[in-house]
Amino acid sequence: MSLTYAEEALSKTRKLVSRPVPNRTIPTIDLLGMKVSRVNRAETLIILQEFIDSAEPHLIITADASAHVIARGDLDYLRIVNHAALVTPDSTGVLWAAKKLGMALEERVSGVDLAEQLCAESARRGYGVYFYGAAPGVAEAAAETMRQRYPGANIVGTADGFQGSPEQQAALLEDIRAKRPAVLLVAMGIPKQEKWIARHLDELRIPVCMGVGGTFDVFSGRAKRAPLWMQRRGLEWLYRLIQNPSKYSKVATLPVFMLRVLTGQRLPPV
After folding, report:
1. Tens digits of per-residue pLDDT, 70-82?
2. Are 139 and 187 in contact, with CB atoms under 8 Å apart?
3. Is pLDDT of 84 > 70?
4. SS3 for 168?
5. How far apart, in whole angstroms, are the C-alpha atoms of residue 258 and residue 148?
6. What is the C-alpha separation between 52 and 154, in angstroms, rounded?
7. Which burial class, exposed, middle or buried, applies to 222 when counting CB atoms under 10 A from its CB (0-12, 13-18, 19+)?
């Protein structure tokens, strides 16, 4: 039976390291004004475990081409990205751009894969994971899928993305603090999820806080991932567009991004 991306990365990671690794400087590239970390999937898992072991808060961003396009018109978001602890390359577009600019990156490191890997490792290591975001019922269904797929997965709490009132936000933050997760996955879309995390990062002090977009929809079965062969050939965006034509606006950012790369248009300094 062929391994999933999550299983492949976990296998590589366990061969690479059997004990905590000392703090390191994470190498980065400057993608026309946006920081992107020079990491692969296995290295990223090791870094995330280091973050968990440190017990210090970290914001992790998975950046695709749309993130770069959004950042031009949202300097607050760009500032958050460039100050994040880790920014993984989460699209074929980002890999293409890095290569075109002479700074080739090894592979895509996607939020969906990282989220699944963190849930899988929570079963082995015992740390807690909290799911926040998506439509009512989706986070709960996603958590149940992870528990079934990885027996012992320690999903300590869930909340949907419709906690808009001050009272609901206060209750949400209190619940997260009470559950004391080591990993907080926030599914509200770019840039809302990153801004929410940045606003509450120091208050919650969770070691790994990451925006994961539509990940809970995938985990719950509401959305399907592309076949593995399409993922490996960088065609997952096409599969998503065919499955959900409403994704067109996001896919439409790709040619905009490509044009900016070809013409060397840098993001404003922040």
Report:
1. 999 999 999 999 9
2. yes
3. yes
4. helix
5. 40
6. 14
7. middle
Map tokens 């869930």 to a residue: 158
In which residue are the tokens 């567009």 written?
241
Half-sphere exposure of 184 (CA within 13 A, CB side): 28
Q: Tell me the two tokens of residue 48.
A: 């995330």
Decide: pTM greater than 0.90.
no
Over range 11-29, report the average pLDDT: 60
Q: Taking Cα atoms as reference points, which of 171, 168, 115 lies closest to residue 139?
A: 115
Residue 9 has pLDDT above 80, yes or no: no
Coil vs helix vs strand at 208 = strand
pLDDT per residue as tens digits for the range 92-108: 999 999 999 999 999 99
Retrieve residue 121's tokens. 């490792």
Q: Where are the alpha helices (DSSP H) in the chain?
A: 5-16, 41-54, 65-73, 75-82, 92-100, 111-125, 138-149, 166-179, 192-204, 215-220, 228-232, 236-243, 248-251, 253-262
| Distance from C-alpha of 265 to C-alpha of 133, rounded to nearest angstrom | 34
Q: Can you tell me which residue has the tokens 């027996």? A: 151
